[in-house]
Amino acid sequence: MTSGDPLRVGLVGAGPWAKSVHAPGLANHPGVTLTAVWARRAEAARELADVHCAAVADSFEELLGQVDAVAFAVPPVVQAELAVRAAEAGKHVILEKPIAPDVPAAERLVEAVTGAGVASLVVLTLRYATETREWLAALAADGGWTGGTARWLSGALLAGPYSASPWRHEDGALADVGPHIIDLLDAALGPIVEVVAAHRTPRDLWQLVFAHEGGATSTATLSINLPVQPTVADLAVFGEHGFRSLARQPVPGVERYTSLLDDFAAMIATGTTEHPCDVRRGLHLQRILDSALSLAMR
C-alpha cells in the first residue's frame, strides 16, 4: 500500500452480518477497497464476493497475501485464532465483539496486535453514531454522574437473520449485545471495576449490576430471546445534572460502520495504533463479560 492508494481489506466470513454491514460498508467506502472474501463455506464466499466485485480467496493464507487489513465477521472463537495470525502477518484488523471467547484468548490477541504495531478497531457500532459521540461528550463536560441504567430486549434468536446463529444461541445476550451496553455504560460513567451481581435465567434473561471507578453504579437488563418488536434498546444516566437518556436514531448499521472505517483509514494513514475502541477496549470488555458469566454460574 502506498500513500493515496485505497486500503485493501479482506473480509473473513459470509454470514448475515457480513452481507448486511461489512461487505457493503467496505465496498462503498471511498478510502477502502473490498479486495477479497474468504469463508469456510466457499459457495457463500463466492456469492458475497460476486455481489461486490471482489476476489474469492481459497484459503485464509491466500487472503492475507492480497490485503493490507482484515475485517472479521465470524464467531469469537474463530476470530480469536485467525486475527492473531493476521496481526502477526502485519495486517491491520477490524474485530467483531466480543473479540474472543475468553480472557486468555483476548490477551493473546492484544499481544499479537500490539507486538506487530498494527491498527485495530472493534465493531462497537453504537459508539460510531453521531448521537452517541455527542451524548458522551456532553456527559464528560458536565460530570457528576452517579448512576445509570440500560436495557436491550429483542427477539433476535426467535426469528430473523441471526436466529440460526449457533454461537449466539450458545453464548446468549451477554456475549452478543452485552458488549454494546457494557461499553456505553463504561464510557458514560467511568471504567467498570466490578461486576457486583449477575443473574441469568434459563431463558437467557440477564440482570447485571456494575460498580464504576469513582463510585457510580449501573444496572443492565439483556435478552435476545423475548417476543419484543421492535427492539427495546435504551440507556440513561443520572446525577448532579439530572437525567440524561441516549436517544438512539434508527440509522442502519452500515452507516455507523462507515464512520468506523473513517477512523480506521485515518489511523493507518497517520500511523496511529491507539483508539478508544481498539483491541485493548475489547480486552477490557472481555474481562467484564467473563466476570459476569463466572458470577452467574455460581
Automatic annotation (TrEMBL):
Source organism phylogeny: Bacteria, Bacillati, Actinomycetota, Actinomycetes, Pseudonocardiales
Protein name in UniProt: Gfo/Idh/MocA family oxidoreductase
PANTHER family found in the cross-reference section: BCDNA.GH03377 (PTHR43818:SF11)
Natural source organism: Amycolatopsis acidicola
InterPro entries: Gfo/Idh/MocA-like_OxRdtase_N, Gfo/Idh/MocA_oxidrdct_glycsds, GFO_IDH_MocA-like_dom, NAD(P)-bd_dom_sf
Molecular function terms, GO-annotated: nucleotide binding; oxidoreductase activity
Keyword Membrane: no
Keywords attached to this entry: Oxidoreductase
TM stretches of this protein: none
Residue ranges of domain Gfo/Idh/MocA-like oxidoreductase N-terminal in the record: 7-119
The GFO/IDH/MocA-like oxidoreductase domain, residue ranges: 163-242
